[in-house]
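The freezer alarm interrupted the setup, so I double-checked each line after restarting. Inputs confirmed:
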Amino acid sequence: MTDITVDGLVKTYGDVTALDDVSFEIPAGEFVIVLGVSGSGKSTLLRCLNGLTPPTDGEILVGDETATGPRRDMAMIFQQHNIIGQMSAYSNALTGTLGRTHFLGSLLQLQDREEKLMALEALETVGLLDEARQKARRMSGGQQQRVGIARALVQQPDVLLADEPVASLDPGSAQQVMGYLRTAAEERGLTTVTSLHQVNLARKFGQRFVGLRDGRKVFDGYRDELTMDTIDEIYGDIDTEGMLAETDIDGDDEETIDQPAAGGGPVA
Amino acid sequence: MSAEAPSGEERETEERLERIRRTRLYGVLKGVSFVLILALLFREALKAAGLIQSGTEYNTPYFLRKLTDFIPLTTYQGVPFVDFGAYLSFIGERDLLFASDISLLWTDPPALISEVGAILIQDGFFALFGVAGITLAVGFAGTVLGFPLALLFGVLGSERVLPFPLNFVFRGTMSAIRAIPALVWILIYIPLAGVTPVSAVFAVATDTIGNLGRLFTDELEEIKEGPIEAMETTGASRPQTVTFGMLSQVTTPYIAWTLYIFEINVRIAVSLGVLGAGGLGSVVKTQIGLTYFDNAMATLLCIFLLIISVELFSQRIRSRLRSETEKMSLRELVFGFPRRFAESLMR
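Predicted 3D structure, all chains:
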């Protein structure tokens, strides 16, 4: 169980300020969704948390350590899946063990039996056990993203970061993937930070919300505090009524719409 | 644009059209001057090479007469006919394509099988193809020998793997190797093993490091950043990130490029043979030297057959690798062959 503390985080790219004095604390095991329009700094925040991007100023504490670079106990799920298309779903899931396997062992897939079983279990968690031997690039976008989640789970992290994990998926797959994410986080007690731009999905799956606008934190609160007004503040002067319209429907149509994604061709 | 549109707007579109026309005119002028410069340079090049000098004399009739020496003629019931029999008998006699006697196939098949078996056991697979087998073996062995170093240099030559000044050591080495053609490399290796297929293998292998390595480096420039970052976030070590994040993205193109270089290497093996390093190339050189042009032509036909076979083989594997669709069934593989054969020839 790992908590995260972000204190006065600033990130600038030349003249552009991507993050402007962002601070918050996340207790261990919380499922946090970062909301905001494109370009509001969500991705930068997640990349800073992961250590992929060094912050310009401020401090990030993960557990007791300052985040300086990618680390084994922190897994990341990417918007573009970033799984390896040439390899099977199983081999991709197994790359989650790289941090604790030596080079030759990982090259020849000599991981322990338990590690290999763990990879298959992770695939089972995301509902891809039957597709384990399938080449990742032949899979649909939703399946590829689930392989990405499996890889993150195999990594056995304490913290799970997800950057727009469902942005390139159709609504059915998006719900499904968010569902898997939430379940996995709950089962394993992971501290989770995920960015999303769909308010309805966020409302449905989120526990706590951090709203970003132009790199500033404009909202930080739990589900009951996420009202129309706060959403207006995060998203600016756009018609947000439509966004909230669906949010009261809770998990009823999930099973019926998740199927089309499973059999389709790869999504670019 | 409708007739009652305000004149201001109309003027604006007219101005825009005028500007587009002007840009297009500049484009045409640029194109014309480019072609003119090219033509001028071409003329200069012809002059430098002596093609349009007044002193150059062409002996066309003699050349054409000599060309017919390559084609032995025979008459079949009074009609002149290319004597393929002469070609075939030379090919058979010298074991250019096949180490055993192919005519046994219709006279005594069991004898052929036992002879082929004996050759395979005694002299190995490549010996079965006679002289062509040597050329093929030089190309193949050179490719396999050069591959590991090409991979090492190619990968380390990429700026994505090694930071800028360091990767240049490997890039530079590959450039230096490429600057020297294989025909010169074999001259360098002659003191080591004489003018033999051994030197030819070394020359081809060295050439492979330069050329294949460069293709490997270039291919790495095309890869996506995402999987690399993803591997980093799993806590992978640097070699693991390179292997899984980068090389796994390029395995298919790497195999395809290696096959392509193999094709080229068989061709290089032919030209090294002309220098005397054995194989079909050596036979061509000897026969032309002896002014047995018909025999040389027979050997050229064998070269043609060898190169085409290697190309077809490599092209089939490559298109199979690149195809996203499911693998062909055995039936399609066998019965669809003539169509695919024709298609690859057209390419």
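Quick read of the result. The beta strands of chain A are 4-13, 16-26, 31-35, 57-62, 65-66, 74-77, 159-162, 191-196, 208-213, 216-222.
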